[in-house]
Amino acid sequence: MYPSHIITLARSYVHENARTKAFSESDKMQYLNDAVKMLTFEARQQCPYFGLVSTTVTQTVAVHYSDIPAWTDRILRVFDDSDHSDEKLPADFCDQYSEGFALSDTQFWWIADDRTKTWTLYCTKVPWECHIGVAGTTGATSMILATDGAATTIGNVWTGARFNDYYNDAYIYIRVATANSGQQAKITDYAGATYTATVASWPGSTPTAAITYEIQPIINPIEWKSLLAWEVALMMMKIGRDEAIDDRRHPYARLRRAFVDKYANPQMRMGSVIRFNAPE
């Protein structure tokens, strides 16, 4: 289930298909991204490790700070990448020798610690924003995503070196192509500086020019398509969630209870603890 499909479902909930459209496609994409963020936040109330990922940060001699990836949400563990024997707390920290680091919003600042070392970070990931865009060059294992702010783009595209790996583990769907549309592939690496998404390979032949693609929501769109669609529909209808939740017969209320129950139950949520859910 891709962003445009979820939005189409939401439109049917408010009967927008039967009358003049009241919302732009950009508005509805923003509603969808707001819904993803809100539901991710609620999942983390039940399961703090929802969306846990790992990455590395390199410390360099004579350089007193290291950038934190822009997509980092909550840092949980920081330890030596080579043998894991040297661990630092995921907060401002100095050891018995007064060596350590302090955290700003965007950087590690190394305190009396002048060396070259690679640190592993376990952290939760900021929910990536799904969008629809027109691709640049597409190869057998890569695609240049749309430039942020392009007139043909619906939703934000996050670019720049600090957004390296931002779309890792997202699925990209070929919505339109001159040939070989309808495919999807998992993004294994994203270089924000060049807008380049790397995929293992396309399941069929490489899509050819005039490609429109979609980046999927982080929450499994197959499992939660109706829940996400209801969120978008409620925003379109300007109905408060409390009103929907109070009515136990409302489909949204039943879906929401199921969502909360899943992440309150360790056995049910195990498939979502390590990585963001995505269809295989």
Distance between the termini: 12 Å
Largest sheet: 6 strands, antiparallel
- For the CA atoms, what is the radius of gyration? 21 Å
Order of helices and strands: HHEEEEEEEEEEEEEEHHHH
Global mean pLDDT: 80
Question: How many β strands by DSSP?
Answer: 14
Q: What is the 3D form?
A: globular
Structural class: alpha+beta
| Model regions low in confidence, pLDDT < 50 over at least 5 residues | 269-280
- Fraction of helical residues: 25-40%
How many structural domains?
3
Strand order, largest beta sheet: 9-14-11-12-13-10
Counting H and I runs of at least 4 residues, what is the number of helices? 6
Content of β-strand = 25-35%
Question: Describe it for me?
Answer:
The structure is a single chain. The chain has 280 residues and is α+β, with helices and mostly antiparallel strands. The chain has three domains: 1-49 and 221-272; 52-125, no CATH class; 131-215. The chain has six helices and 14 strands. The strands form three sheets. A six-stranded antiparallel β-sheet has the order 9-14-11-12-13-10, with no helix packed on it. Strands 1-8-3-4 form a four-stranded antiparallel β-sheet, with no helix packed on it. A four-stranded antiparallel β-sheet has the order 2-7-6-5, with no helix packed on it. Helix 1 crosses helix 3 (225-237) and helix 2 (25-46) crosses helix 3 (225-237). It is globular. Mean pLDDT is 80; it is low at 269-280.
